[in-house]
Amino acid sequence: MEDLYSIHPGISRGGGAASEASGVAGGDRSPPVAVAAAGAADLTELMKTQIAGHPSYPSLLSAYIECRKVGAPPEVATLLEEIGREGRGGGGGGRAGGEIGLDPELDEFMVANHRALVVVA
């Protein structure tokens, strides 16, 4: 659970997120479910941004595209090949400080998923 706090700065350990989600803190009149859903959406977007900005993302994407090409009709395989070429020629996602080792949990996630895709393909 400690890792979750380091991923999203809006989540506090002292129960602040729970009281904010309930609408008690700060006089928020939003329904609790709407506040919780908005927080979850923000967290999901943050995680997507971190994944897409990771230095290993291009190789993960390439492995995913190769998996999708297996058994695909020729026109779909051609389209996927074009997408793969565009992704390789794009020049990187550009995460601020995009270094391996800044987030060991994310690094492990990226490596594990890349391995799983390479084994399948």
From TrEMBL:
Signal peptide segment: none
Domain KNOX1: 45-89
Keyword Mitochondrion: no
Domain of life the protein comes from: Eukaryota
Pfam families to which the protein is assigned, alphabetical: KNOX1
A GO molecular function held by the record: DNA binding
Region (Disordered): 9-30
Keyword list, A-Z: Nucleus
GO cellular component, one term: nucleus
Localization terms from the record: Nucleus
Name listed for the protein in its UniProt record: KNOX1 domain-containing protein
Source species: Zizania palustris
Organism placement in taxonomy: Eukaryota, Viridiplantae, Streptophyta, Embryophyta, Tracheophyta
